[in-house]
Amino acid sequence: MYLSSIDRPGTDAASPAGRSRLRGIKAVGGNVFALGTVSLLTDVSAEMVTAILPVYLVFGLSMSPLAYGTLDGVHTGATALLRLVGGYVADRVRRPKAVAGVGYAMSALAKLGLLAVGRSAGAIGFVIAADRAGKGLRTAPRDALITLSAPPHALARAFGVHRAMDSFGAFLGPLVALAVLAASGQAFDAVLVTSFCVAALGVLVLVLFVRDRHDERPPAAAPSPREAVALLRSAPVRRLLVAACLLGFAVIGDGFVYLLLQRREEVSLSSFPLLAVGTSLVYLLLAVPIGALADRIGRVPVVLGGYTALLGVYLLLTASLRGWPLVALVLVLHGLFYAATDGVLMALAGPVLPEHLRTTGLALIQTGQALAYLASSVLFGLAWQLWGPDTAVRCAAAMVVPAVAATALLLLVRPTTRSHTEETA
């Protein structure tokens, strides 16, 4: 087996003799913590709303599985092309912080938009799309800032720290929503107003505490669209993009996982948001140690292990196991899946992308994965509606195995023949 250069943790930042390498969280730098704080607050805001949306849409509005799958796909994938826009603009203007700030502000304002749309599923979908447009715009510039703020040998750990803080926000969000609902007499408007205030605080932290980062080379001419397209001529980038699409197509939405658990175990609607809390708690606990593990043993094996955990989630959802052991195992494996894949995949991408197109390259990979997820979510909703949830989950499980096998071949095995373009990429 050949461990490709996209998976080899950086060694060019080794400490001089007599100086011990910084370990743990201290190695990733203050800018990563500032970005993590922004993401923590933003995720508190987002999860206050999204943790209760599946129940509201499916039970409150009687939305069909196909309609919910389409809306869930829109939530993640329909604005995926804006990731490319955000990445390219950030590379052009060399101000990733500013581009990310616009995205965070858009998502904050979308929370107020939900106050005006009432029970209209179409209007809710439009506002969710606007919120995700903000996420699409900010994600690649934010991740580029992380890659520029952490040493190469600690990239996966840096993403682990950021994702841990992000998941802590996702952990707190549903709990804050439940507290606001209890204090306001079940007033959904109070949740939305509180959500907006928390998101606005995140934007303020970004403005005051996050610093722009650039590579240390002298500023070059702004990259042209042709140069951005030329990224696809790089063999490592192509392989990583195809792998991201394959893996994205094997994932069904979190809301579907929680709805399947609710259906099997008859979880009360008032307790439904706590399922997301369970996943976020596991993610929070495992993100940093798994990021450090990926830096030590290789990032590709950790990503593949994460998708193996996802396969376990799908198999458990069709197994005969019942009761709290089923719920606990599903949530633990679901959180493990995110801890082993979310930030580690971006750490894989960083070292193989050219400095002047780093943000665009990250956005390209995120866009491919998000569009694959959009297709997966719609198809899963259709399969549920046509054949029932059990058959739909078995189909999802069947997709994971070839996706993991193909990804292993793409990223771990050297091609036996290579074109001249690949040799010089």
Automatic annotation (TrEMBL):
Indicate whether Nucleotide-binding appears among the record's keywords: no
Localization recorded for this chain is: Cell membrane
Record has Membrane as a keyword:
yes
GO molecular function (one):
transmembrane transporter activity
The record ties this protein, via PROSITE patterns, to: MFS (PS50850)
Q: Which UniProt keywords apply?
A: Membrane, Transmembrane, Transmembrane helix
Which cellular component terms (GO) are annotated to the entry? plasma membrane
One Pfam short name: MFS_1
Q: How does it sit in the membrane?
A: Multi-pass membrane protein
Q: Which parts of the chain span the membrane according to its record? A: 167-184, 190-210, 240-261, 267-288, 300-317, 323-349, 361-385, 391-413
Q: What is its main location?
A: membrane
The Major facilitator superfamily (MFS) profile domain, residue ranges? 22-418
Q: What is this protein called?
A: MFS family permease
Which source organism? Streptomyces nymphaeiformis
